[in-house]
Amino acid sequence: MLNRIYIVVGIFAIVVLAGAFLVPRFITWGDYRDRMEVLASGVLGADVTIRGDISFSLLPSPRLAFTDVVVGDAESPAATVGAVEAEFVLMDFLRDIYNVTALSLERPVVNLTIDENGLLSSGVDLSGAGAGVALGHAGIANGSLRLEDLRSAETYVLDRVDGDLRLSSLSGPFQFQGAGNYGETRYDLRFNSAAVDGDGNTRVSSFLREALGAYSLTLDGTLSPGAAPRFAGTMAYRQAPPQADAADDIRGDLLLESEVTINTDRVVLSGYTLNPDQNRAGMRLTGAASIRLGVRPSFDAVVSGGVFSLPPRDASEVAAEQPYEFVRLLLEIPAPPLPPIEGRLGIDLAEVGLRGFALREVRVDATTDGATWTVEQAVARLPGETEMRFSGTASNDGGVAGFVGDVSVVSRRLEALSQVWKRPVENNPLFNMQGSLTGRLMLAGDAFGLSNGRLTLDGQEHGLELRIGFGAEPRLDTVLTLGQLDTLRTQALEALVPDVTGDANFAISFPDGSFSITAGRVDVMGLPAQDLVAEAQWSPSAVRFSRLAASDWGGVMLNTTARISGTLAQPWVTGSGDLGVADPDAPGLGVIYEMAGIPFGWQQAIARALPFSLQFILSDVDGGEGQVLTAGGDVGAARLDLRAEMAGGLPALAVEDLRLVGSLEAQDSAAALSQFGWDSVAFADGEGSLLASLFAEGSGTDGFEGRVALSQGSQSISYAGGLRLSGSGEIAGEGTLEVLLDDGSAIATLAGVGGSSLPGLEATAALQFEGLRSLALDGISGVAGDTGFGGRIAMQRSGQMPSFSGAIDADGLELAGLAGALFGESAFIGAVGAVWPEGPLAASDIARPSRGDITITAPSISLGGRTVSGETTFNYVWGPESVSIKGLGAAVGGGSLDLTVDLCCAGPLTDRTVSGQATVSGVDLGAIAPGLLAQGLSGRLDGGVQFEGSGASLADVMRGMTGEGNFAVADFAAEGLAGEVFPAISAFEDVLNTDADALETLISLALARGPFTADQAQGAFTIAGGTVRLANLIIEGTGARLAGSLNLMLDQLDLDGRFVLTPRDFNDPNGLVQSDTARIVAQIAGTLLTPEVTVDLAEMVASIQVRANELEVDRLEALRLEDEARQRAAAEERNRLIEERRRREEALRMEELRQLEEEMDRIDLPPELSTPQQPEPAAPSGPLNLGFQPGVNQPIGNDVNQPIQLFPSQ
């Protein structure tokens, strides 16, 4: 029974289930459309219209499907769904609870609207007041969410939305996870909502991520739904870095975190933290932002932070192989993000590290209109108390940054600022120097430029234009207009500019470029350049100067064009232009010498060619290799033409074949020779133009063959032979030298003996030389004047001074020519009619540039056709200060003469010093004494003298001559001073009665009987003030002595002397001739050439007369003395007798007195009664005059004790 019941129930159940499956399929559910629309409207709070088909099945679970659903007004629906299929929980569904377990929405479109007042309108009721509905799972396919903002007339569409939605009711909680497209970008979406609380708020969280993971946005907070919805919570925006190809390029995510408040009017980030690279936690930025929504959406944001720096470069990269960091920064500057709305941005950072340098105290104020940024001010500080400012616009052109605006950089300490791009140096000229740079900055595409730039350096303003290409065609173009820069400012400018020559980064950064520099004055390579113009373009293959000019660069004028290619080791240069130099000491010339490696000897030669003004062309050979240099122009007083054919071009000049053809021609030969230091060369007196020519061909390695000649009219100096060029620039050779000169002084000048005079000559010699170090002339053969000569001469350079040596054998020498070689021809000007010439000794006012010692031999020396010496040998010696004839040895007058004469000292002063010494041995006085002097004196002379005198001429020298000497004359004889004169005088009788004139006559006759002779006469003399003084000369002769002094005034050769002849070894028995009073005086006057001797006999005559009187007085005096002796004896006898008498009387008186005193004592009488004492008579005080006094020496006539005047004349 029970089984039957089960069967019945089972059958019923099966029928019911079968009906539940089958019956709904036979029901026309469209008839229930209104019911379903009302039901859905109640749930959504808005009218729902189902315009498509409806289907329903109950089992196995309730499933409802319908299409073309419109929510809200059909004209402006709040939402539309293409097809809906929903599954419900069966039991809840039967209880009228629509717990949707699965929902599929195809092509749903939700329309949201923000009206003019900022109120959100969706057309549905989300407050939960509708009939209950629960959704366990909803699938959305190809949905769309449309938000229309009526304030700005903008519509924002999120389409192609696919995902899953879960909700308990339309008022939440619900969850959505899926994806959708905004524009062309696909996003992953996630949104969660909690149930609405009592205040109508709900907790929501959302996540949005770009489908490829480029960036994401997370929101978490409280949502207050309604017409004016509001969200308050936190947000996190994360942006992934670009894909890195290398490990060092790996960067962390950019992360923006902030408190956020969102409503229909504004989005506010009240305090955000921005970390551009999460791998670098210390690099954080903070700030706040406000985004206004509505009719004119805009934003206002501020960014602040501490240290913000770019990531470091790859540690393995080689810095020298990379472009400048600034150029790399230009390549890496990102395009500024441009929000589609206008707004304002303020940035305030403590420091921004840009790898190579850092910006401090960065402040940026900018606004945007949605298309470009307008930078009101961008301020930052750099090292050196430097402030950088920028104002302008920034743009984003297809992802490429663009900037246009005004920039200024003002620095108070440029030396610190320059260390950003240059290594620090000692003694930096930028120390404490101020400067600034202003201009119009432009960054567009791959070009960076500065226009209308004004560079101020130490208060001086200059112009600067700059363009940098840093993209596919990197290059640098600059235009620099400088004012007047002194040395310090130029050094400062150089210290400010990067080292473009020594820095490999420059060529990498700018393989191509150009520059144009103009300056009123600027230092170039340490020298001032006036009116400088430098315009050039460079590329990896060459540098082309379209113009390089300066009116004055260290004394050099330059105006050229050039092309430089090749390498630094072997540059290939072509060009043309003008080159002018006026001063041989021009500093610019020295710099050119150093750059070109010109040897010092060549520099000296070039210096003598100045001033010059040349035009040159350096070009490649047509149709072949090599180069040709042609140059021409004025070289001082001459005209230069030069052609150099270089087989290997200028770089191979030293090793490849070279042909040189050149000439130097001058109409003014004196000026041209003076220019080359040959002031005294005889060419200056020739006729016609002066021509120097050169022809040489060969190579630097194998040597050259050629000819060098200097000629004028019929005169010439030429060399023909080989030439070799050493690595140091020294020229050596071996060949033949030919000389034909009207005045041989030219050779003396070339040898460095300027001022010396030589006759004309014609000679040849084999010449071998090695630069200026050595020279050898062998096999010299020639004629000088009428005299033949030969020999050899060599030159060796010791240090900077050439030294000549050699020997010359001459057929004869002329004394006048010898003097000319010593003093110069000009020294003998004015010699006619004068004792000494007044011509200048200073023929040259500069020191001689050489020294030498030439041995000269000759069989004789002549003067005016008369031989004055025999075999002669001497050394002709010169040096920088002096020229000398040394060790002259000659046979003279049966003896020998040794002579040395020096002429010193060369220099700017007009005075010269003549000094020397001479020694004679056994020379006959007659051979060297002038005519009249030789007639009065004879003997053989030995002696020596040294002398020195200074003056502008030989006459001045003689006026100031000084010196000393001594001599000895053997067999000395002086005519007219016979020593036998004194015995003759002794024999004179009755002198007192002989007239004085008669006595002088007698003495003169005695002197003329013969000469004064002596075995030897010797003495010493001095020379002072141009006077020769022979003082206290004493000659001990036969029977007489000759003594005296003699002065010779060298100026006019005047003589002034006085000699005294006195007896020697003579005793006059008659006493008339006394050695101390017998004096015969000889006065010497006149000149050395015409002496005048006067014998004064007056003193001798007076002497013998006085002596005769003295002899008579002596006789009378003897008589007087005998008488006085007799009288003296008588007086002595009288005095003796008187003294004896006096003594006897005194003895008697004393005896009487004694007796009286005894008597008085006896009688004792008073003293007053005693006999008065008589006074004692005075004794005589002197002898008695007892005899007769003779009448001599009495005061009668002449005074007492006065000599008798025997000779009234005395």
pLDDT averaged over residues:
82
Rg, rounded, reads: 69 Å
Overall geometry comes to elongated
Low-confidence runs of at least 5 consecutive residues: 8-23, 1167-1176, 1178-1210
Q: Strand percentage, roughly?
A: over 45%
Q: Quickly count the helices.
A: 18
Structural class: alpha+beta
- Would you count the extended β strands for me? 60
Domain AsmA: 6-118
Biased composition (Polar residues): 1191-1210
Pfam family, one: AsmA
Coiled coil: 1121-1150
Q: Can you give a write-up of this model?
A:
This protein has about 1200 residues and is α+β, with helices and mostly antiparallel strands. The protein is built from 18 helices and 60 strands. It has a 57-stranded mixed beta sheet that branches. It is elongated. Mean pLDDT is about 80; it is low at about 10-25, about 1165-1175 and about 1180-1210.
Short description:
Residues 6-118 form the AsmA domain. With 1210 residues, this protein is of the alpha+beta class.
Could you give the topology of this structure?
Blueprint: H1 2-22, H2 33-44, E1 48-50, E2 54-57, E3 63-72, E4 77-88, H3 90-94, E5 98-106, E6 109-114, E7 120-121, E8 133-149, E9 154-167, E10 174-182, E11 185-193, E12 202-210, E13 215-224, E14 230-239, E15 254-263, E16 266-275, E17 285-292, E18 298-309, H4 325-332, E19 342-353, E20 358-368, E21 372-382, E22 386-397, E23 400-411, H5 414-418, E24 435-444, E25 447-457, E26 460-469, E27 475-484, H6 487-496, H7 504-509, E28 512-524, E29 527-538, E30 542-553, E31 556-566, E32 571-581, H8 587-596, H9 600-608, E33 612-620, E34 627-635, E35 638-646, E36 657-666, H10 669-675, E37 690-699, E38 703-712, E39 715-725, E40 731-741, H11 745-750, E41 761-770, E42 774-784, E43 787-798, E44 801-810, E45 813-814, H12 815-823, E46 851-858, E47 861-863, E48 866-869, E49 872-878, E50 882-892, E51 895-904, E52 912-924, H13 925-928, H14 931-936, E53 937-951, H15 954-959, E54 962-974, H16 981-986, H17 996-1007, E55 1012-1024, E56 1027-1036, E57 1040-1049, E58 1054-1063, E59 1080-1086, E60 1091-1096, H18 1098-1163
Parallel strand pairs: 5-8, 6-8, 18-19, 27-28, 44-46, 45-47
Antiparallel strand pairs: 1-3, 2-3, 3-4, 4-5, 4-6, 6-7, 8-9, 9-10, 10-11, 11-12, 12-13, 13-14, 14-15, 15-16, 16-17, 17-18, 19-20, 20-21, 21-22, 22-23, 23-24, 24-25, 25-26, 26-27, 28-29, 29-30, 30-31, 31-32, 32-33, 33-34, 34-35, 35-36, 36-37, 37-38, 38-39, 39-40, 40-41, 41-42, 42-43, 43-44, ...
